[in-house]
Amino acid sequence: MPEKIGFIGLGIMGLPMARNLMRAGHELVVHDHKRSTMEELVAEGAEAADDPSAVAERAGTIVTMLPNSPHVAEVVDGEKGILRGARDGALVVDMSSISPVVTLELARAARERGVGMVDAPVSGGDAGARQGTLSIMAGGSEEDFRRAAPLFEPLGRTVVHVGEVGAGQVVKACNQIVVALTIEAVGEALVLGSKAGVDPAKVLEVLSGGLAGNRVIELRRENFLQHDFTPGFRIDLHHKDLGIALAAGREFGVALPVTALVDQMLQALRVRGQGGQDHSALLTVIEDWAKHEIGQSDRPPVNS
Questions:
Q1: Is residue 118 a contact partner of residue 138, using CB atoms and an 8 Å limit?
Q2: Residue 90 and residue 92: Cα distance in Å, rounded?
Q3: Does residue 60 share a domain with residue 159?
Q4: Residue 56: how many CA atoms within 13 Å on its side-chain side?
Q5: Short-list 55, 2, 67, CA closest to 231
Q6: What average pLDDT score do residues 94-113 get?
Q7: Which domain holds residue 279?
Q8: Is residue 209 part of a domain?
Q9: Beta-strand pair 91-94/47-48
Q10: pLDDT band at 296 (very low <50, low <70, confident <90, very high)
Q11: Which residues are catalytic?
């Protein structure tokens, strides 16, 4: 029987991830600030805990899936954090996307209490979380990674041990650069093609079949075409991730000029109240600049 594990953070990503662990046979002790979300999993067989410390008292391995660095710091090392209740030899597996600097600080605090830590951020969005097909980039010692690896099997299709603790967050920052810039590039292509009179669906069909094909088109096709920006991954979170990437660029002396531009486009969306929308809403910035919404017939077809 797989060991009992803790799971803290039952949001858009965390809830389906927790369900996949339960389907794989793991007994879960869960905590989230939304009691109604916890109750969903309790009805499916999980145990609820009042705070992260209580989770750690009942589980030897604790997974966290939280929005940002301060949330993870509070849950791991706060007054009622995991480290207050964790037994010697426990393991924290943080699958959030946070600052590598914060990860190293928390790993140091954990080590002082005899607790191991793996940072294992993910890529694949809400669809990957539901389907158990996430890409997982894990940082930590060989021993801690081996302990965490069985938990990754029901969650992800691609699992890579990328280095020591903190390395997972560095690779996630790299991933988020590519995703953001790809969304922006697809948006530019759609607006250019559409304003010139080409059906946006045809643009995506052609792009998908050549060197320009990518997972953004595959997973966000209908978001673009239908202007459905129901969040799979929120603008607020992607803006946070690019901030982490830019800070890492300053730390390591790497210029990230296009990342900085897309970061500011995301900031513009947040200022106008769209921070809770899906990151595919980057399209709307380009549409605004072009004074054209894709699919509109405000220009004659290119062959007229």
A1: yes
A2: 7
A3: yes
A4: 26
A5: 67
A6: 96
A7: 171-290
A8: yes
A9: unpaired
A10: confident
A11: 172
